[in-house]
Amino acid sequence: MAADVQFCHPPSSTSLLAAIGVLGAFERAEFRASHRALWSHANVPCSLVVRFILRGLGASRAMRDEAAAHNDVTFIRAPEDGPRARSWGPLVSLMGWYECALTAWPRARLLGKAEDDVWLHLPGVEAHLLRTLESLERAGVAAPEERLYWGVMEQYSLLHEPNASLRGHPFVGFGFRPAKRACADRRGGEGPFSFAKGPLHALSAPLAAQLVAARPFEEYVARVRAHPDEEDGAAAHYFEDAFTGWAVSKFARGDNLTVVHAGQFLYWDQWGSHYQGPRRGTVIFHARLKNGGVMRRADDMTLFARTQHCAPRRIELPCYEPMALGCNGEQWRVCYANPAAFEPPGCDARAICSNFTCAPKEAAAARVDRAAPAIEELRAPYCAG
Predict the structure, then answer these.
(1) Does residue 372 form part of some domain?
(2) Residues with Cβ < 8 Å from 4, sequence gap 6 or more?
(3) C-alpha distances in angstroms, 18 versus 203, 205, 318?
(4) Which pLDDT belongs to residue 163?
(5) CA–CA separation, 181 vs 203, rounded Å?
(6) Which pairing describes strands 48-57 and 16-23: parallel, antiparallel, or unpaired?
(7) Helices 29-38 & 297-308, crossing angle to 10 degrees?
(8) Does residue 298 lie in a domain region?
(9) pLDDT digits (tens, 9 = 90+) for 114-169
(10) For residue 224, which of 79, 126, 109 has the smallest C-alpha distance?
């Protein structure tokens, strides 16, 4: 007999650094199988929870059986499929994940979002998040006061009317860096604003709660579902990651609002601006061709990371001056992570490695930053219970 659908989860008392939801679609089961093979429970740091997020209304028997067999699926209360689901589905899944995670893991400091066609070096992700938060604390910003938006940042502006020359996409002004200017109405659009690339981002839980309360995507989702045959105009396709960045800039309020650009060297994909090859500091690999065969490259990444990975020992957060203004007029620190030291000492995290082979290079001076706390010390508050 097939298991019943359980939406979300009962509240947990566990303290977590981050709860990460991996968004995907049921038919991409081979992607989830790849993740399960790579992310055995022994390899998921105790400070993190990682769940596969599926829309569960009308869930098939196969979906329910998979969830029962692996105990790593979170169903949200939304339909799995429908006309133009590719346009509205990721936004519905993201908001459903935030809403669920805020109640299921109320002691999670950060809520993360990833995609199912992404390889993540979870210990590396943990190290970057812990070191970034530790740097904020050194600057006098600590939980629960921090309001952090973390990821590999880019920038866009949101057009009031989708541009037909952009195939109906409503975003312009692309740039490989966070936005430093004030967001405002300019030339028929609102921007610029920072957004974290879709394969992985993290928000402080209070920021996620503000997005859930604002429900910024409901009007767009309703328009798309009401006009399933339209490709442009009212039902234009909104990139989920850029739309999230706009929503954060539009609805986040409070003190200590901080964008942290984690650094391009963390990220590698198959084509585009990041195709050169993995780096020793890579923690995110995006299989943009969207097929399970390509995900086998994740096995290569795992073997590469075991022997070549450089982990941050200390992260500094220089910030741009003056502070940027969000689309609602709130002040934001816009900072970029500058790892001041790596482990093992002398490791060159930015070195590009062709075919998973790093060219011989004279090592930097093997300096140990003894002032930086050990990763075990930073992890301890989240792994005690």
Answers:
(1) no
(2) 64
(3) 9, 9, 24
(4) 56
(5) 21
(6) parallel
(7) 20
(8) yes
(9) 998 888 999 999 999 999 999 999 888 877 778 999 999 999 888 776 654 444 55
(10) 79
188 by Cβ neighbours in 10 Å (0-12 / 13-18 / 19+) ranks as exposed
Name beta bridge partners: 200.
Answer: 114
Q: How far apart are CA 334 and CA 183, in angstroms?
A: 13
Query: What's the DSSP call for residue 46?
Result: T
> What pLDDT shows up at residue 132?
95
Q: Is residue 1 part of a domain?
A: no
Q: Compute and round to an integer the Cα radius of gyration of the chain.
A: 20
Q: Domain of 229?
A: 16-360
| CA pair distance 26, 334, nearest whole angstrom | 37
Kindly report the number of other CB atoms within 10 A of residue 354's CB atom.
Answer: 10
DSSP per-residue codes, 188-252: TEEEEEEEEEEEEEEEEHHHHHHHHHH-TTHHHHHHHHH-TT-SSGGGPPPPHHHHHHHHHHHH-
Phi, psi angle pair for 26, to nearest 5°: -60, -40
Report residue 35: phi and psi, to 5°.
Answer: -60, -45
How many domains is the chain partitioned into structurally? Answer: 1
What residue type is 237 in one-letter code? H
**Cα(286)–Cα(289) distance, integer angstroms:** 9
- Token reading at 66: 């998979």
pTM over 0.85: yes
What are the φ and ψ backbone dihedral angles of 88, each rounded to 5 degrees?
A: -95, -20
> Residues of the chain whose pLDDT is less than 70?
1-3, 40-42, 82-84, 161-170, 172-175, 227-238, 270-276, 288-296, 359-371, 384-385
215 in a structural domain: yes
Q: Which two tokens stand for residue 368?
A: 């140990």
Of residues 204, 196, 201, 202, the one with CA closest to residue 141:
204
At 2 the three-state DSSP class reads coil
Instruction: Read off the tokens for 329.
Output: 């007029």
- Smallest Cα–Cα separation from 201: which of 281, 108, 94, 123? 94
